[in-house]
Amino acid sequence: MTTGSVEPQVTPRGLPQTAVRDVLARAAAGAPLDADDTEVLLAATDHDLEALLDAAAAVRDAGLVHAGRPAVLTYSRKVFVPLTTLCRDRCHYCVFVDTPGQLLKKNKPAYMSPEQVLAVVRQGQALGCKEALLTLGDRPEDRWPEARAWLDEHGYASTLEYVGAIARLITAETGMLAHLNPGVMSAEELRVLRPTAPSMGMMLETTSTRLFLEPGQVHFGSPDKDPALRLAVIENAGRLRIPFTTGILVGIGETLRDRAESLIALRDLHERYGHVQEVIVQNFRAKPHTAMQGVADADLREYVAAVAAARLVFGPRMRIQVPPNLSDPAEFDLLIRAGADDWGGVSPLTADHVNPERPWPQIDELARLTAHAGYALRERLTAHPEFVRDAAEWIDPALHPAVSALADADGLAVDVRPSPLPPVQNSGDTPSGGAATAPDAPDLLNSAQLSEVRRLVERAAGDPLALDDAEWETLLRATGSDLGALTATADDVRRYTVGETVSLVINRNLTSTGYRAAGRDGAGTFGLADAAAIAADAASLGATELCIQGRLPDEEDPQAYLEIVRAAKGAAGDLHVHAYRPQDVWDLAERAGLGLEGALGALRAAGVDTVPGTGVKVLSERVRALVAPGDLEIDRWTEGITAAHRAGFRSTSVLFYGHVETARERIAHLRALRGIQDSTGGFTEFVPIPLPGYGTPLVPGRPRSDEHRAMVAVSRLLLSGSIPHIQIPWTRVGRGVASELLRAGGDDLGGSLLDGRVLPDTGIEQGLELPVADAERIAARLFRPFRQRTTDYRTLRQAPR
């Protein structure tokens, strides 16, 4: 497939060649489409599909002009709050839900506490988020006694009452707006929740009763997936004047006719009440360890045809959303051409907990890709502009101050980050029980009963910048139950931001210090032909990354830095080259006379994709002089990594600890990394690495594993909202301790470090391998999903095995 077009395919139903053009002509004349028309469009292929896409794009563009924002696509900057993963349904594609037994094994609460929610939401607020998406399982108390017991203990009559309490708490404490996605609700429950959130949502998914009633189908055994029940919820939302998000799910076993009828049913409800603010057209993605893990992902042709058909069914004034993390970035142009005009909620902080294997694109990258298609990207609120501008009709008066504070004159989001608002006044519809007084709910801890460490941990979880250096040092020195509280909280922050997934990249190391222009002359050395063979071998073994680093010998031509990369890329063009530390780049810059900027440009042209942020132990000249005087000077390392980021390279970041450094120097190092990240956004992960040969603990007598746990936990808390991933250096701590550290805030195992079959001694960590199967077992013992990732934490199109 080429960007912006679809490969020809056979028409699934053998429709007459003129059928699609006839429907498009009627749509262009303003005639409403029915299910028969829509089914014709959904089956379009070849030139008919191209015509459908062109028509959909024209209708979308006209709608944007009518809305007063021509050529502007929208998104909402959000935090994802998975309030509970218990659910009474049994959908065959879902990895969001847990059973009580699984929660127990994960040491995960039945419901997020108010403190846990606020810790995540406040971090999102600091990153400019204005939406808190509350997603949860349907009525878990109806199936699970554990859910009922939690609600009773905390003073709530139902899960939905707790949802309302948390939504009020979020707006009162942060000024952010909640978007509620709690599943099926009665008309009375919708009415009671209306004052807590300016918008709500629930996917229709499909009107197919077959998928609900027939054993073995995707919705069998899930009482809340009855299409009639879901349509009733959407209708009741309209009657109550609630801005509502809904949509269809493409590729779950429904027929084209089902798809067509689903779109028409939603259109008919919207025409009756005018309350559907956006229609999501979502593509099915198979997930491991589900009943549908072997089902193919939604076909791209069918998906884009569904987007385009939805646009023509709903016309120019409806917002059509496509989730950007569920498609390859190369497909974005095509989705925009199909008539989409909204990317939905995108988070700079939290994972998509419903699709944890699909990371969000960076918002800057989303803006760049949107601009590439000829459109600007603007931030909206959880309620779309049309509803914000008509707040008197659509938004409860209790929320008017909060909405007004975040909206500009066009009803889109203001550019500035808001200050917390005073508590929202309720409108008389406050649920009974704990919901009316959420900040004083019984599960909020009495700070007088907490140790100093635990009070610091609570503050750090909500605002990493609130602690001073001395307070962070106190956390680094935590022991006993205080250390347990520190690691548990760090793990909660990990869970509710980056998610549960444990990731690994399949890679091979090549130490460029061993390069010899004349060819291999001993152990650990190699020539250009060897570099090509090593790359080809790594790729054939399933590696997606070749990591190259190490300063060339002075007698070698510095152009060899580039030649090694070209040789590797020439032999394995799809292999991601992760190459050269700041020290190596400076060597190329100076000895080749290129300058720093020129060296980085040359590396990009040669095929380098990302760079290692290694080559420094601690960002302290005192430490460098004592431990690694041959390392690059600290200011030159900082200049080099910053320049790499600004040249478009992303990088890792590291700290080597446990030698002569002080606790204060560790904290200063983390703060410096956070400062660089604030400036460039270039770090993908942070790796806290024990320096071999030392093992000096900050607290005399503290077990070495506790030293590592404290370091990982503090790293997670201090860097939260800045550097997203904390990588566990399993080669330095061993697999057993690595598993412990994944419970202290870690989420990544780094690389598999394949030795390969060609000159394995040229890799710096030869003899240490972590096969995918072993990494999967580590994750499984923690009851967490495993994901093979790319170097820059994207999802592989097809994971090699």
SSE topology sketch:
Layout: H1 19-28, H2 35-42, H3 46-66, E1 72-84, H4 100-106, H5 114-126, E2 131-136, H6 145-154, H7 159-174, E3 177-181, H8 187-193, E4 199-201, H9 210-213, H10 227-239, E5 244-250, H11 256-273, E6 276-283, H12 300-314, E7 319-321, H13 332-337, E8 342-346, H14 363-372, E9 376-380, H15 385-389, H16 391-394, H17 400-406, H18 452-462, H19 469-476, H20 480-497, E10 502-505, E11 507-511, H21 528-540, E12 545-549, H22 560-571, E13 576-579, H23 582-591, H24 595-606, H25 621-627, H26 634-646, E14 651-657, H27 663-680, E15 683-690, H28 704-719, E16 725-726, H29 730-733, H30 735-741, E17 748-751, H31 772-781, E18 786-788
Parallel strand pairs: 1-2, 1-8, 1-9, 2-3, 3-4, 4-5, 5-6, 6-7, 10-17, 10-18, 11-12, 12-13, 14-15, 15-16
Major sheet attributes:
9 strands, parallel
Structural class label? alpha/beta
What proportion of the residues form beta strands (DSSP E)? 5-15%
Poorly predicted tracts of residues: 5-15, 417-449
- Count of discrete alpha- or pi-helical segments spanning 4 or more residues: 31
Radius of gyration: 27 Å
What separation lies between the terminal Cα atoms? Answer: 24 Å
Q: Total strand count, please?
A: 18
| Mean pLDDT over the residues | 92
The percentage helix is 40-55%
Shape: globular
